[in-house]
Design goal:
The protein has a domain of 262 residues: 3-Layer(aba) Sandwich (Rossmann fold), CATH 3.40.50. It is of the alpha+beta class. The longest helix has 18 residues. A hairpin with a 5-residue loop joins β32 and β33. It has twelve helices and 40 strands.
Amino acid sequence: MTERFITHYSVEEKMVNLNMLYKAGTFLSVILAAFIVSCSPYPLPPETRVDDVVEEMHGISIPDPYHWLEDRKTLETQNWIDKQNRYAEEIVGETPYRNYVEERLRELMDIAVTPLPKEAGNYEYFSMRRPGEDLPIVYRRELPEDTEIQKLLIDPTEDFEIVLDPHGMSPENTTRFSIVTFNKNGTLMIYNERNGGEDELIIRVRDVDSAVDLPDSLPRSLYGTVFFSHDQKGFYYVKRSRKIGPRVMYHELGTEHAKDKLIFGEGYGPEQFINVKQVDEGRYLIFTVQYGWAKSEVFFQDMEKNGPIRTIVDDINARFYTSFIDGELFMRTDYRADKNRLLAVNLADPDEINWREVIPEDKNVMENFVKIDDKFYVTYLYNGSNQIKVFEQNGTFSGEIFVPEFHRASIRAGKDKEAFVTVVSFTTPETTYRIDLNTGERTIWDQRQIDWSPENIIVEQVWRNSIDGTHVPMWVVHHKDVQLNGKNPTWLSGYGGFYVARKPSFNPTLALWLELGGVYALATLRGGSEFGESWHRDGMLLNKQHVFDDFISAAESLIDKGYTNPDKLVIQGGSNGGLLVGAALTQRPELFRAVICDFPDVDILRFPWYSTSNNAPALLEYGNSKIREQFEAIRKYSPYQNVRTNMAYPAVMFSTGDLDTRVPPSAAFKMAARLQASTTSGFPIILRYHHKAGHAAGRGLSFSRRIIDTAMKFTFVLQQLDVQMTFE
């Protein structure tokens, strides 16, 4: 085990003072840049060819000096990637720190996680990764004779029948299998096969008794919902296309896929998502069309009457989430309710005038709901964490389910008069309680066992004003002995987009950071769902800069309140969070010492032209630079275009992979190259790239590879914040 962080002055720290002089204009930039490079303890990055490509957008010239890196398949680009990987390893190196971090992360992460089984026929099926293994294996066991719910936990130490084992199917164990669904009698299983971290899947249909895949399997593509039809003669599926958009299809078992029938979706484009579900014993199909993350449409078809597809919602600028319960369709929506309300629709007469409000809008955001027995259990967001309230069928409030302060929570039904509530926080791993709804008695049903103690760790929620005066909160987590002396190594993260709420969550990397005495902060930002749809819209499209302002204000607050200083502050984000930290480091580079930027959207200006991206709906969140007004907003913040020459940038580690088909990995290449050529700080800009990594399924890497990569990032942070560890 280690003692607390010990800091000392280093060459890097002295260079910060030189950078401050540079910012003050004391030295000529060229002379200073050469001097700093000569003083830097780090080797120079690989050389990158500079193009004279200039793109015209709306009559404005946009230089793109590293445009050639967008073609990832050329030998030149592949050689460049290899050199960057070697350079990254050279910078981080093999050190006792890295070895310790890797070992400790393995202790924290290599644990048994109890899966939730799916009942099919005479068996229970589940996917589980045992400690010491790289990938989850699909198992099954015979249904226990005693089906009392509290005795159905899966013991990871037991022996089970293996259904699908992906180990050894790819050189680096990057092939994964996931259960999708079963037919009624449990003889057929639909499962998917994923290659690394790509979004694209192969959908397979397996006869589980003969252990043979049928010819009805679907080839590699982008898929949404898949389920068997009520008559079991075939299955429905949603297939997405980069060119024509999503379509709901029906495949009859035993027929060729060329004969699959189009059910719904004609006329919709790549910027929409479509979902379909079968309800009421197969009587209805419910279709939802999602326009980005702020608007949706709802349709249904009465299959019993072989009726036409009818409209429930199609011209309302609001979001609708549907659940079919006891003969009625329920819709959680922000329509005329910024923080959501619950409506009921009788499908016999679905016109808006007949919609019935079940639970009205509350002062907090309605995040989810479930009906258990004869009551509604509604999960709310309260300042970024969860509360669960109980309502009668007529919408009358009737109580609460206790959730500890600063926790996220979810609830699901059990057997008669019982529920299962799962809670998790920054300091406590996931714990599930069984609740007797008659007596209120609560017992621990399942708890993740992790070798880490939250003793003496404090969780605070501190508030600040953003640049425009908006009052925004931030979680701050640290040991009780941390002093507000401005010297604490501090890790700041955030997201801010796509109606995603960043709530309390346990993370082994965070646990190690806290264990070593660091401060962790998670900034609540506009663009999420924490305070309603207006909060979301205030951080999207033309308002996207608000998200970056909120994040920068979080960094300034941590410094002003004495938690840390710019030499001890690292920021981290992935995907949209990668855009967040990319914008922050280009707008306020002097605020940060290090940046971890994973699978990032950092070239938003060219996003519509990246042929490798399957994420056209993101244009409805970020904006589309093909539209002049949105182009003007995007070019002010798009990180790649806003890198300035002869600027002292913090140390940056980019991570991406060849199978990221959602966010163009080439954007990270270009950003890394431009920063390497532009920075005068002498701090390293490195790129970590894996040919099988991507956006989906935990980046798509094996457990052992994820440990290695996570340890490398963590070690990079320790080095750049000049943190020393002493070993007992």
